[in-house]
Structure formats: C-alpha cells, structure tokens
Amino acid sequence: MIDINITRRIRAGKQAFGLNVQLKSKAGRIALFGPSGSGKTLTVHAIAGLMHPDSGYIRVNERTLFDTSKAICLTPQERKLGYLQQDYGLFPHLTVAQNIGFGLKKGMFNPGRHALPEAAARWVEVFGLQNVLHSYPREISGGQKQRAALARALSVQPNLMLLDEPLSALDASLRRKMREELAALQARLQMPTILITHDIDDAVMLADEVHLIRDGSIVGSCHPSSLRELQSSTPSMTLDALKIA
Ligand SMILES: Nc1ncnc2c1ncn2[C@@H]1O[C@H](COP(=O)(O)OP(=O)(O)OP(=O)(O)O)[C@@H](O)[C@H]1O
C-alpha cells in the first residue's frame, strides 16, 4: 500500500516547478507515466529520501517514511528501499563486487576480493555476474550493468523497489530481454514496485496500475492495457487524451 501526499516548490533561476502529488494505491506494481519534466523522478526521489518535500507525508505499507506534521523524515537507509536509477548509478571507480556491496555495511566501500555478504552473493548468482565481479562498469555490457545495479538494489532486501526508466539505456533487443527478466523477477519476489516510464510496453509488462503525471501532479490512473487502446484510438496521443478516471 502506497499513500503519498506531498508538495514541493523548486526554483531554478527564473523557472519554478511545483510538485503536488497525491497517490494512494493498493496495487503491487505501479507505473508513473508522463512526459519529460512532469515530476516523475522528483516523486521517486521524495520516496527514496533523496529530496525532502515542503509538506505532506509518504507511507509505504502503513510505515511512515516522511511526515512534516509529525516531524518524521527517515534517512534513505532507514527507508529500506531499492532504487534502480535511470543510468544505473554504478560508481565508475569501483568494481562490480564493490558496487554491489556498497551500502550493505560499513567497510564494503573497499571489500576484499571475495568478501561479498550472503545477501549480495545470492543476487550475483541469480544474475550470472560471477565472471565480472572484478570488472569495472566501463568493462561490462549494458545488460550486465543493469543486472549489477539490480543486484545492488536487491541486496538491501528492500520493502519497495523504485525503478526509474530501468530499460532506457538498452538497445531494442536487450530491452525486450531485460523487460522479461524484470517481469519474472517481480513475479518471483512479489515485491512492490514503482516504475517510471515513457514506454507503454514497459508499463504493460511491469505494472498493474498506471498513474498519469503531468506538470507535477497526478492527473488520472488506468490499467496499463488502456494505454495501448488509447494510443491506437488516438495515434497522436497526448496526456490530455489520457485524462481518465
Ligand atoms: N534539482 C533541481 N533544481 C531545479 N529544478 C529541478 C531539479 N530537479 C528537477 N527540476 C525540475 O523539476 C521538473 C521535474 O523534473 P523531473 O526530473 O522529476 O522530471 P521527469 O518527469 O522525471 O522527467 P524525465 O522523464 O525527463 O526524466 C523539471 O522541470 C526539472 O527541470
């Protein structure tokens, strides 16, 4: 269960952006779908604890992560969320093993060659990363980077997984393959996820409910399959056409 009600005003030079997001859902897999600059990443940053809203609350499975009225603001670590960033966020100067172990416990910044804790070793095996553990991010493929970032996110045994355009850096065929892998992983772990995407195929395969975001606010919600129907009936689909229920 996700229950979010947040506001945040951001100024950048003469430009201002207002985030005003209300989202309440019992769906296990939610997608935030909207155009560039609509506030998707800011929303996910607020959930992850990387940005603090001016007011409001964020609750995940009835646990309060943030609430200005109660002066609650858990640190990103205390929130126990997995966050897969758009560009994967791997540290270029750390090996795959060091990247995966990063954040698990003190001292993992520079772990020994075979020092990966059990929680991380499990995901190394699941994603077949054994042979690249001592490689640096620049030395591995796009799919391996994505799997390494996923292994890092999953190693903290998160209560909720945040996926920010997880497939956007991949070419079309790898994208299809990784989409299937992610969907299989979601089914296996039954872990709640919030997915940010511009891609209808991603939303259909990786979400049960889509929330449409525009200009910093949620403007409607629908089943992922409705996105396809709307696109075929409205070829020049705009988010205005998607203002439904
Ligand atoms: N740190 C910041 N300082 C100033 N403005 C910001 C900052 N972060 C985001 N913004 C502005 O807030 C708005 C929403 O940004 P956000 O990154 O959430 O969009 P998005 O929907 O995730 O876009 P994209 O799909 O392109 O990633 C944008 O207009 C952006 O310029």
UniProtKB/TrEMBL annotation:
Gene3D superfamilies (UniProt xref): P-loop containing nucleotide triphosphate hydrolases
Keywords of this entry: ATP-binding, Cell membrane, Membrane, Nucleotide-binding, Transport
GO molecular function, one term: ATP hydrolysis activity
Keyword Cell membrane: yes
Signal peptide, first to last residue: none
Top-level taxon: Bacteria
Location of the ABC transporter domain: 1-240
Name listed for the protein in its UniProt record: ATP-binding cassette domain-containing protein
Organism for this UniProt entry: Pollutimonas harenae
